Predict the 3D structure of the following.
Amino acid sequence: MRDRRRTLFLFGSVAATFLSDTTTTHAYYTNVYGDELRSCSSDGTALTGFTRTGYCVDRNDDAGSHHICIDLSSSTTRGGGNFCDVTGQSDWCDQEAPCHDDADQNCPIWNWCVCQWAFASYLENAGGCDYVQDVVCDAINMEAVEAYRRQSQSKYANALRCIEERCNIQAGRFSLGDALLPSHAFPLTVLLLSALTVAILGLKKWNGTHTHSESDTTDYVSYQAA
C-alpha cells in the first residue's frame, strides 16, 4: 500500500509541477487577435523577450511587463523620435545584441518587447499614436491589453486605443475571454489536470480505507524529505 501511495504522490507532484512550468511559456499566451502568440524577434535580428525566448512573455520578477512588440527599425508616421529617445533612455534601440538564431553573434535590435507601461508613456510623450513606431500585432501579448483595461488613467486608455487602431481591431472587441488559454493549449491542460485529479482522488480513497501506523507515517515523511 505504501508503494501505491508513493506512486500517487509522485504522479500528482510531477503533474502539478509540469503544469505550473508550461503555463509560463509562450504557447499559453495569446496575441491581440486571440491567436497563439508569435515570436517578436526573428533570425538575423537580436533575440528579445524578458525570458530571452523571442516572445513577449514574462515571469513574476518582470516588474516592467514587457508585453508590447515594437518595430524599432521603423520610422514614425509623422517624424517623431524612436522609443529610446522619447522615453528618455540611453539609445540602446540602435545597438546590437546576441542574435535570435545564434547567441555567439550580435545582430541589430529590430523587433523588441518593451514595457507596456513605458509604451503608454511613449505614446503620451510622442504626441499620440500617429507619432510612434510600428507595433507587431501578432506578437503583442494579450496580457498588456487586459492590464490597460484595468487602469483608469487616460494614458492607458489611449494605449489600448492605439493598439486597436494599429492592429485594425474593432474598438471594444477585447474581452476577458481573449486572455484565457488558447484553444491549442486545452488538450494538454485537460490531460494534466485530469492526471492531478486522479492522483488526489486516489490518495483520498487510500486514506479512507487504510489505517495509518507509526511506521507508515515515518515512511511518508521520509519520502517527502527525499
The longest strand covers residues 68-71.
